[in-house]
Amino acid sequence: MKFTVAQIKKKAFNEPFTFADKVDVSELETMNNDIRQIKPVDVQGECTVHGDQFIFQFTIRGEMILPCARTLVDVTYPFDIRAREIFTTTSYLADGDQEDEIHLIDGEVLDLTPYIKENILLEVPFRVFSDEADVQENFLQKGNDWEVTSENTKEKKIDPRLKKLENLFKDNEKEK
């Protein structure tokens, strides 16, 4: 989502410059995070100009697929993020401006996409849980040399490697 400084100044002269678009943020899937899939997000907002500062207030809406913290089943996580970013065309920033996270505009084009991705990454939850119905249908019950068991399982299987030890306990009972 790119805008030219001239375009913003022209449209935001008397009233805020509004924008709405779908943004492809699928690059987030390849980064080192839990996002398995993310579709293009809807971005709507407005920009107001105050001197050399461009204040963007926008909303990011979409869905991402994350792993369940218990079972690693895919969980759809909808999000609705409200963000505010401030940009400036001046090359001089005061000490307070750096704390307020005022971003410099390099050249004549302002690219909002990296800030959209950053806001999405900041909103990824630490963990999500799937509904019980989804878990029963989708998660793996068995794998290579492992199996999910519950406390209600009445069948007690003895590991074949420990089968010989069973006889040892029977011999000790006979001696008593």
Structural features, described:
This protein is of the alpha+beta class and 176 residues long. It has one domain (2-134). It is built from five helices and ten strands; from the N terminus they run βαβββββαββααββα. It has helices at residues 5-11, 95-99, 113-122, 132-138, 163-175; strands at 2-4, 17-23, 37-38, 41-50, 53-67, 74-88, 102-104, 109-111, 142-143, 146-147. The strands form three sheets. Strands 2, 3, 4, 5, 6 and 7 form a six-stranded mixed sheet that branches. A two-stranded antiparallel ribbon has the order 1-8. It has a two-stranded antiparallel ribbon with strand order 9-10.
Taken as a percent bin, the fraction of beta residues is: 35-45%
Our count of helices gives: 5
**Number of β-strand runs:** 10
Share of helix among residues? 10-25%
Instruction: Quickly count the domains.
Output: 1
Shape: rod-shaped
Mean pLDDT: 80
The description of the largest β-sheet is: 6 strands, mixed
Alpha-carbon distance between the two ends: 82 Å
Which regions are unreliable across 5 or more consecutive residues at pLDDT < 50? Answer: none
Helix-strand pattern = EHEEEEEHEEHHEEH
Q: Give Rg in angstroms.
A: 28 Å
Estimated structural class = alpha+beta
Primary descriptors:
176 residues; alpha+beta; 5 helices; 24% helix
Question: Which secondary structure elements does this structure contain, and how are they paired or packed?
Answer:
Layout: E1 2-4, H1 5-11, E2 17-23, E3 37-38, E4 41-50, E5 53-67, E6 74-88, H2 95-99, E7 102-104, E8 109-111, H3 113-122, H4 132-138, E9 142-143, E10 146-147, H5 163-175
